[in-house]
Every structure is written in structure tokens, then in C-alpha cells.
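Example for tutorial group B:
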């Protein structure tokens, strides 16, 4: 069986400035960071860019540093670097745990933070951490708050030619991430990131719906009492939830509650 192919160009950018110039010259081009979302979508013809601009090797976008009460991570930093970082483990252990549970070793050694966040795959893990920790996304043009960044399935607030450069994750008093993996793909069918801060609690859900979102009713309950028991009477609506051969909308709605309870328990024991 022969496969129908389509032509596209490939350029490995030598610097962030060069990547910006290439994007400005070819607006329909796509950035290639880790490629763990982009390449599969290209194979399925869901994306057909005329040009790929590879930024995976840019050292200026690969770093982890502590800045005040936050951990700042470069967009080209790979998952395995986050999971093994002593700084991340010390400041936000839940973020290191999340990175360690992404895909498999092959994915973790190729996939990048920036690529995951910029593509906003409905089942990606990092968006839950960005939203749950109220992180700040810095780009080549501006700074974007977590609540304003994710706008829909595979959609974000990023404008044409805008590149994610780093993300600042504020440390929380307590935080944890729990997810139910699809047995085949290992992507999250429902993943919940819970973070308790001095300003209250944030609960971010990925995998269950077309786009990562916050469960505000859980946030209110956990702000009043940070315990799995506080979620006992909360029923998550299945309206708008994902539904496929792996699980119905009702199944995923129930998983959100189960994973939220596990995340709170883990945060208390961490």
C-alpha cells in the first residue's frame, strides 16, 4: 500500500531570533519543538504545514532556574529534565512527578514543555500544571496569565509568529497531580492537578474535556476544607465531556472526581 505524501520544507533555527524571522517570512509554518503532538497530527493530515522550523536545539530556551518563589522553565526543556531537576523536586515536587508520568521514556526524552503547552492537546499533562499552579507564560511578544492562555481544543491565545520562551510556575503550599491513563496511549483520560496556596485552591482538569479547565466547585469546597472528604458530595457534569470507545462522558466525569480525591490525598501526604 502506497501512502500519499505532501511536500514541506524543514529548517533548524540557530537562534530564537532566526526562528522569529523565519516565522515572519512564512506565516503558515509550524514550530517543531519535541514533535510529540505535531508529527502525529501531520501523519493523520490534521496539519499540513508548508514549512517546519525546528527550535528543539536552542540552548537559550532550555533551562530551569529558581526565581523567588517560582520555578522558571525554558520552553525547549525536555520532560526528563524537569522530572530529574533537583530544583523542581525541591520547590514543586508535583511538577516533577507530572513530568515523570508523561508518555514513556522515549517521549520524555524528546517532548518539550513549550511544545506541550503551545499545542494544547486535550489529553496533555502540562496544561493542567500551568492552569493549576496559576503559571505565567512568557512569549517573544508578551506575558500571558494561565487563565487566559488555553482557549479551546488545540487552541491557545498565541498569535501568529508568537513563540513561547519560558513558563514561570509559582510554588504552592501543597500540590499534586493524579491521572487515569488510557491503557493504550498512556495519555490522560482524566488528569487533575490540585494546588493549595495562600490565596485558595486551584483545581485544573485535563483529558476529560476538549480543553483543560478549572473545576471551580471543587476549588470552593477545598478552600473551605482541604481534604478528599470535601469532594464527596460534588458531582461533575458530563455535559461537554469527551466521549469515545475508551470511555463515555459520564465515565470521564466520574474519573475527574476520583482523580481529584487522589490528588488531594497525595498533596496531604507529600
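The residue assignment follows.
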Amino acid at each position: 500500500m502506497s501512502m500519499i505524501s505532501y511536500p514541506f520544507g524543514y529548517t533548524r533555527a540557530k537562534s530564537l531570533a532566526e526562528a522569529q524571522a523565519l516565522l515572519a517570512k512564512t506565516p503558515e509554518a509550524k514550530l517543531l519543538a519535541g514533535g510529540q503532538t505535531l508529527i502525529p497530527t501531520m501523519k493523520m493530515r490534521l496539519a499540513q504545514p508548508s514549512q517546519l522550523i525546528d527550535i528543539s536545539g536552542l540552548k537559550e530556551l532550555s533551562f530551569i532556574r529558581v526565581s523567588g518563589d517560582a520555578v522558571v522553565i525554558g520552553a525547549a526543556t525536555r520532560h526528563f529534565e524537569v522530572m530529574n531537576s533537583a530544583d523542581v523536586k525541591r520547590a514543586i515536587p508535583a511538577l516533577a512527578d507530572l513530568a515523570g508520568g508523561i508518555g514513556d521514556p522515549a517521549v520524555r526524552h524528546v517532548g518539550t514543555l513549550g511544545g506541550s503547552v503551545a499545542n494544547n492537546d486535550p489529553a496533555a499533562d502540562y496544561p493542567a500544571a500551568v492552569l493549576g499552579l496559576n503559571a505565567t507564560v512568557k512569549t517573544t511578544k508578551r506575558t500571558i496569565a494561565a487563565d487566559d492562555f488555553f482557549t479551546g481544543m488545540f487552541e491557545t491565545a498565541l498569535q501568529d509568529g508568537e513563540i513561547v520562551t519560558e513558563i514561570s510556575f509559582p510554588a504552592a503550599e501543597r500540590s499534586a497531580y493524579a491521572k487515569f491513563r488510557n491503557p493504550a496511549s498512556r495519555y490522560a483520560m482524566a488528569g487533575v492537578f490540585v494546588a493549595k496556596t495562600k490565596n485558595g485552591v486551584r483545581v485544573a482538569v485535563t483529558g476529560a474535556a476538549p480543553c483543560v479547565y478549572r473545576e471551580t466547585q471543587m476549588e470552593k469546597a477545598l478552600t473551605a476544607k482541604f481534604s478528599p472528604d470535601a469532594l464527596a458530595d460534588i458531582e461533575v457534569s458530563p455535559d461537554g465531556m469527551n466521549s469515545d470507545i475508551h470511555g463515555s462522558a459520564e465515565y470521564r466525569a466520574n474519573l475527574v472526581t476520583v482523580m481529584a480525591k487522589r490528588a488531594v490525598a497525595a498533596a496531604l501526604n507529600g
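The chain has eleven helices and 14 strands. Compare this with the pattern of hydrophobic and polar residues in the output above.
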